[in-house]
């Protein structure tokens, strides 16, 4: 196990907590040391759920280790059953408890509780959170639908076909949404809307909002919709083998993928494609075609996150936004193959890692103009001064917005258009501010023009700072000294070239530095780095205006 400051995924028992917290009337008894209750905060502080997760921790302490920790577990399981009266329980151990080998499954079996008790074997030292969530969901479905496995898959299929022939609507389950998932709450609503609009009934949504009783009804549906393969694919594969339920392979993130998804659903439900496609309405497709292509088309984008969202974001970037995907990767090792294959179609080699420092290095090396990633990439992009939008878990509190903000379906495509384009469009506004900053009417020492009646273009005594706060973040810390010089220059102060030698780089001439200041802020960092690299590689002693243009010509070849 590696100790690290940030991690993309928690241990597998956190995955099990995501399933338990998503469901109703299910309780999780977790053999875990005292400190493990921290995991509750993920749900209450990050996701802002109004209740604690349905988890009882045994919370053993160091002094308990010489004693009867097995009994501690048995008491906790018995008391949880009496107190919460769940329809079913899951039991397991966290990383540390795994080492004391108390066997929560065997211990709870000995209690003879009158409800299903599902033991979880989650190898904490080999597997991670998404795998833990997937395995927990699979074990719950397997244990609770077991009575239906006595008849063959073929019998299940013919029973369902008879119902449809008798006039019943085709039905499906929606599988995969969990607690702490990126926009799962809103994706369910959006996908439910698409399916019901097409005349398909929703049998069960699970694990989110399903009770153990609901899980027992899963085999009744005609097919399964897999929203998040990381969580639901292994369960859907098992359901396909046991009950002959086919499942969707396309994840409806992006306009094109949503259309493909609807076609796939039409085939699985045995209904006409025309019917499911007739309601399509999407703002994002038209918006993407109508935005100023000079500024947006060909933007170099780097994408990192879980496999589902990365594969979808790459397709949207290239086919719907006109961006150029310059790098992509995932921390989901179980789905590395899928991401590698997708990356190949963009002429790239996927970055498969769970080390955020490696991701940071890659971003710095590629100098993209937009980063689409997780909470980690948001920090990385901020440090490097690159615009960024979050597309995947792990996420932070602001990624559980109060408003409706799905990623899936046509509304999801609209939300993504706004979220991704916004940082780039803001760049345009910033560029205008920079262009007009010395204008007599618009410079930073005069009040806003709409306040003309209180002083107009007179110099304000409450002058606003010379540049907006977010301008500061664009310049990496190591270049602060140079940035200050750029600021002075644009204020018409006298600066000699000797004053702007930074980090052993060839010094910038005042003229070149002033020209650099005219480049829009969102590409300025890259232009500066490229020019410095060019000067270094060509052994130049000073960066002049000519060097700046030569570097531009060189890198745009
Ligand atoms: S048991 Fe695992 S999750 Fe809990 S504190 Fe130890 S390492 Fe972290």
Highlighted features:
557 residues; alpha/beta; 5-stranded parallel beta sheet; 24 helices; 12 strands; 48% helix; binds iron/sulfur cluster
What is the topology?
Blueprint: H1 12-22, E1 26-31, H2 40-46, E2 55-57, H3 69-84, E3 88-93, H4 95-100, H5 104-109, E4 117-119, H6 129-144, H7 153-165, E5 171-175, H8 184-197, E6 201-206, H9 212-215, E7 223-226, H10 229-243, H11 255-269, H12 273-277, H13 283-290, H14 293-296, E8 300-305, H15 307-321, E9 324-330, H16 336-344, E10 351-352, H17 356-366, E11 370-373, H18 375-384, E12 388-390, H19 409-435, H20 469-474, H21 480-490, H22 510-518, H23 521-537, H24 545-555
Parallel strand pairs: 1-2, 1-3, 3-4, 5-6, 5-7, 8-9, 8-11, 9-10, 11-12
Helix pairs in contact: 1-6, 6-10, 7-10, 8-19, 13-19, 15-16, 17-18, 22-24, 23-24
The chain binds iron/sulfur cluster.
The site of iron/sulfur cluster has 7 residues, from helix 4.
Tell me what you see in this structure.
- The chain has a five-stranded parallel β-sheet with strand order 10-9-8-11-12, sandwiched between helices.
- Helices cover about 50% and strands about 10% of the residues.
- It is globular, with a radius of gyration of 28 Å.
- The chain has helices spanning about 10-20, 40-45, 70-85, 95-100, 105-110, 130-145, 155-165, 185-195, 210-215, 230-245, 255-270, 275, 285-290, 295, 305-320, 335-345, 355-365, 375-385, 410-435, 470-475, 480-490, 510-520, 520-535, 545-555, and strands at about 25-30, 55, 90-95, 115-120, 170-175, 200-205, 225, 300-305, 325-330, 350, 370-375, 390.
- The chain contains 24 helices and twelve strands.
- With about 550 residues, the protein is of the alpha/beta class.
- Iron/sulfur cluster (SF4) binds next to α4.
């Amino acid at each position: 196990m590696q100790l690290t400051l940030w991690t993309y995924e928690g241990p597998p028992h956190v995955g099990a907590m995501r399933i338990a917290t998503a469901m109703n009337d299910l309780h999780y008894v977790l053999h875990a040391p005292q400190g493990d209750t921290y995991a509750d905060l993920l749900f209450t502080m990050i996701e802002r759920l109004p209740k604690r997760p349905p988890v009882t921790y045994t919370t053993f302490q160091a002094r308990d280790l010489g004693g009867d920790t097995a009994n501690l577990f048995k008491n906790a399981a018995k008391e949880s059953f009496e107190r919460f009266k769940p329809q079913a329980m899951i039991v397991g151990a966290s990383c540390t408890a795994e080492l004391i080998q108390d066997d929560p499954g065997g211990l709870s079996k000995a209690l003879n509780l009158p409800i299903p008790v599902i033991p979880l074997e989650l190898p904490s030292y080999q597997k991670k959170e998404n795998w833990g969530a997937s395995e927990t969901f699979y074990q719950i479905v397997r244990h609770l639908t077991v009575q239906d496995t006595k008849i063959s898959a073929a019998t299940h299929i013919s029973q369902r076909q008879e119902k449809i022939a008798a006039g019943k609507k085709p039905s499906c389950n929606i599988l995969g949404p969990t607690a702490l998932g990126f926009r799962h709450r809103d994706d369910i609503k959006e996908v439910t809307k698409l399916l019901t609009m097409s005349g398909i009934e929703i049998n069960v949504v699970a694990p989110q909002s399903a009770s153990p009783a609901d899980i027992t009804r899963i085999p009744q549906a005609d097919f399964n919709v897999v929203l998040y393969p990381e969580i639901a694919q292994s369960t859907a594969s098992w359901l396909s083998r046991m009950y002959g339920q086919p499942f969707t392979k396309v994840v409806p993130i992006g306009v094109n993928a949503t259309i493909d998804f609807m076609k796939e659903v039409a085939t699985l439900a045995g209904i006409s494609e025309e019917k499911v496609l007739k309601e399509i309405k999407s703002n994002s497709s038209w918006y993407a075609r109508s935005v100023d292509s000079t500024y947006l088309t060909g933007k170099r984008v780097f994408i990192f996150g879980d496999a589902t969202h990365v594969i979808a974001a790459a397709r949207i970037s290239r086919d719907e936004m006109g961006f150029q995907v310059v790098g992509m990767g995932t921390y989901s090792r179980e789905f590395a193959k899928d991401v590698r294959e997708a990356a190949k179609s963009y002429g790239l080699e996927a970055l498969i890692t769970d080390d955020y420092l490696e991701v940071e290095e890659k971003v710095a090396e590629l100098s993209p103009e937009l980063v689409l990633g997780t909470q980690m990439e948001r920090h990385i992009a901020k440090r490097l001064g690159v615009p960024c939008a979050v597309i995947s878990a792990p996420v932070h509190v602001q990624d559980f917005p109060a408003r409706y903000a799905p990623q899936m379906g046509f509304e999801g495509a609209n939300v993504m258009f706004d979220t991704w384009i916004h940082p780039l469009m803001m760049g345009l506004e910033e560029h205008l501010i920079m262009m007009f900053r010395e204008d007599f009417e618009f410079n930073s020492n005069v009040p806003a023009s709409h306040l003309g009646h209180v002083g107009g273009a007179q110099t304000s005594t409450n002058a606003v700072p010379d540049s907006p706060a977010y301008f500061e973040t664009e310049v990496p810390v190591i270049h602060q000294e140079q940035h200050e010089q750029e600021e002075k220059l644009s204020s018409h102060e006298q600066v000699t070239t000797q004053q702007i030698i930074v980090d052993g780089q060839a010094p910038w001439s005042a003229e070149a530095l002033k020209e650099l200041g005219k480049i829009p802020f969102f590409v300025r960092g890259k232009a500066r780095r490229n020019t410095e690299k060019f000067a270094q590689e060509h052994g130049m002693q000073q960066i002049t205006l000519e060097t700046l243009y030569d570097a531009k010509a060189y890198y745009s070849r």
